[in-house]
Design goal:
Layout (H helix, E strand, L loop, with lengths): L1 E2 L2 E3 L11 H8 L3 E3 H10 L8 H4 L8 E10 L6 E13 L6 E2 L10 H11 L30 E4 L8 E3 L2 E4 L5 H4 L8 E4 L4 E2 L4 E5 L13 E5 L2 E4 L2
Antiparallel strand pairs: 1-6, 2-3, 4-5, 7-11, 7-14, 8-11, 9-10, 12-13
Length: about 230
């Protein structure tokens, strides 16, 4: 999910830059506009040097950072726990900036209804305190930028290490438990590639993330990693 009109910077072969200011601007650039993505997909990172994201004031919308004071909860009673007061830093996207979730193909269920349900209930670990709520609009058609005569693919989703050509790694802890096994997580941590990583071929992978002690006898845990392909030339 990205701010509408922005995509992750594709990790094509890096361009060598001697100027320190320009090099730092390139290093910190994570999201680019659709127009710049099209140029990078066609010409490589050299297209970034003249882009408004590097040369001008063009920047993706930043969420607001707010702090909220909270009290600890006594789990046995559900009441406030004496002596436990802490501050939590939260990110709030600008409500004037819609975020776009891209998909392709036909989902096996009504995706809009499913997303609307998640948005109403709240997404993420803070849902129980009223966080992570959103409103769904659409679906709308979208034409995403791709290179003519592409010979590789940049992904819009976290991807598998297998087959990655140019990539950035991130650890994923995969803590899941919830109503299945209580508070104890049952997914093994693993490495995956960040959005924008480049593959020679688009592929999907089911990664076995079952821990040494599975949640129950015979149970296996799988993580889906799929390359959302946007054609680039490398």
């Amino acid at each position: 999910m990205y701010p509408e009109g922005w995509l992750p910077r594709p990790k094509v072969p890096p361009v060598q830059v001697e100027d320190t200011v320009l090099r730092k601007a390139l290093k910190n650039l994570r999201l680019i506009t659709l127009e710049t993505f099209q140029k990078v997909a066609e010409k490589g990172e050299e297209a970034l040097l003249e882009s408004p994201e590097v040369q001008g004031p063009k920047a993706p919308p930043e969420p607001r950072r707010l702090r909220r004071s909270r009290v600890g909860i006594e789990r046995a009673t559900g009441a406030a726990r004496r002596g436990i007061l802490f501050t939590q830093e939260l990110l709030f996207p600008d409500p004037r900036t819609p975020y776009a979730l891209y998909m392709m193909g036909e989902p096996p269920f009504e995706l809009r209804d499913a997303l609307a349900f998640v948005g109403e209930m709240g997404f993420g670990g803070g849902a129980s305190v009223g966080l992570g709520r959103f409103r769904v609009e659409g679906p709308f058609g979208a034409e995403l930028p791709e290179a003519q005569g592409a010979n590789a693919y940049a992904t819009l989703a976290p991807g598998p290490l297998e087959g990655a050509l140019y990539y950035e790694l991130e650890p994923h802890w995969g803590r899941l438990g919830g109503g299945y096994v209580g508070a104890r997580p049952f997914k093994s941590p693993y490495f995956r590639t960040r959005e924008g990583s480049v593959y020679r071929e688009a592929k999907d992978l089911l990664l076995d993330t079952t821990p040494e002690e599975p949640p129950e006898a015979g149970a296996r845990v799988w993580e889906f990693l799929g390359v959302f392909p946007l054609g680039v030339r490398v």
